[in-house]
Specification:
175 residues; Double Stranded RNA Binding Domain; 6 strands
Amino acid sequence: MRVSFFLPVFGVCLIVLLGACNNLPSASAAKTDYNRNYDFSNVHKVAIQQITRDTVETMMVSDVQIIDINEALTAELQQRGLQVVTGNSYADIFLAWRFVPDERATVSTFDTATQKMTEGMLYVDMIDPVILQTVWRATFRARLPDPSDSEAAAEYSREAVAAILAQFPPSPIER
């Protein structure tokens, strides 16, 4: 075969690969804000809050996607040396998350034949269990893959959560 055949094929493969890399989450993609007066050194146990199905946004996230995100959060928190507990009474902090799809996402995304990916903002809040206020928040531009491709969706969730929690807990501020 001639080299002239391989160059266009190589070019197409390179474009596809670069496009795939652009879809991967990165730590710089997550934006965080937190209460600089809060003492995060006392945070050792985290309780992940359940998703309530009371809005269109929460109904658009499938059970499989919720499980993937919760499992990814649990694994990443444990990797950071934090314990994930099931009861709020045992927690030093609560973790609540929600996914808000873009406005162009409509109820038609319930049609699994047309749903490929839902884009929107993923918010992760760390809430103090005593004062019930958010003390740390990350926002992340997310693209939830079609849950029918469970391995790809789970991998994306792991990568997104790693990017989101890359800055948690924040470093103590020297006074």
